[in-house]
Write a structure and sequence with these properties.
The protein is α/β, with parallel strands linked by helices and about 260 residues long. The chain has a domain at about 25-110 and about 180-255: Rossmann fold, CATH 3.40.50.300. The protein is built from eight helices and nine strands. The chain has a five-stranded parallel β-sheet, with helices on both faces. It has a four-stranded antiparallel β-sheet with strand order 2-1-4-5. Strand 7, helix 7 (about 195-210) and strand 8 form a beta-alpha-beta unit. The protein is globular.
């Protein structure tokens, strides 16, 4: 498996070295998030190290809310959270992170093709005055090829929502991660049903983890046998039955978060 290539081109910002205490990626002390119907999670203490971290947590919107908070997309109600050396500065973390495969942020309409998605991202990253034509096969390869590696790229006219789970997540990650910031947060791995596809995605995240830190989640994170994975147990998250209440809190905060896979 080849290494993930470094970012290049004028649209790739040069990030300063990550400023962390004691080598940590993130440190949370007593963090809490509450919504109109009560507590979502917490008080919670959490420590994450650079590299690939998998949060072991039950599925549901509370898990989603925690992952969004770790990359500056949701505001906490209490406690202190330091990420990438930024203590209680969600906007700074937002600017140095990307997020992918969360329908609350980057959900894909059934009518969107691979070509549409790549074209939109190129236009988003281009100066407002520059005309950007529709992306072709080469542009799709440049943006997504490094993640697909031994898998064939999907046709540019394929509907993203109709792609197999693995291919859909790889496309969404590639689109969100064009800047290659210090932190990438990826939607839960247990969204993929087939074990082999989950393992393939985990292998690609480990490759990304050589150049940037990655946070994802799985209800059974400790079942992965890959070397280099850091499985982190997360207590005090609400069960799936509370999804509606927590989803409302997420929706209330989305206007502050933006939608472009982590673009500040």
């Amino acid at each position: 498996m080849s290494a993930i290539p470094p970012p290049n081109g004028p649209s790739r910002p040069a990030y300063a070295p990550v400023r962390t205490e004691a080598g940590g990626l993130a440190s949370a002390r007593g963090i809490e998030l509450s919504g109109p119907w009560g507590k979502v999670f917490g008080p919670l203490d959490l420590d994450l190290e650079p590299g690939v971290n998998i949060l072991t947590a039950p599925p549901g919107a509370a898990r989603v809310a925690l992952m969004m908070a770790l990359c500056g997309r949701m505001k906490l109600k209490a406690g202190s959270l330091t990420v990438l050396g930024h203590r209680d500065e969600p906007r700074a973390v937002f600017a140095e992170s990307a997020i992918a495969c969360f329908d609350e942020l980057d959900g894909i309409s059934p009518s969107i093709t691979v070509q549409d998605l790549v074209t939109e991202q190129i236009r988003w990253e281009s100066p407002w005055y520059r005309w950007v034509p529709k992306a072709g096969t080469e542009q799709v390869r440049q943006m997504c090829g490094y993640l697909f590696e031994d898998l064939p790229l999907p046709p540019i006219d394929a509907f993203v929502a109709d792609l197999p789970e693995l291919e859909q997540m790889l496309v969404r990650i590639a689109i969100a991660n064009t800047r290659r910031p210090p932190l990438l947060v990826v939607g839960p791995l247990d969204l993929i049903v087939e074990d082999g596809q989950r393992d393939h995605l985990m292998a690609r995240l480990l490759e990304l983890g050589q150049r940037q830190s990655v946070i994802t989640a799985d209800v059974n994170a400790r079942e992965y046998s890959f070397a280099g994975i850091k499985a982190v147990d997360v207590p005090r998250l609400l069960e799936f039955r509370q999804r509606r209440a927590v989803a409302s809190e997420i929706a209330d905060q989305l206007p502050d978060a933006g939608t472009q896979g982590g673009a500040a």
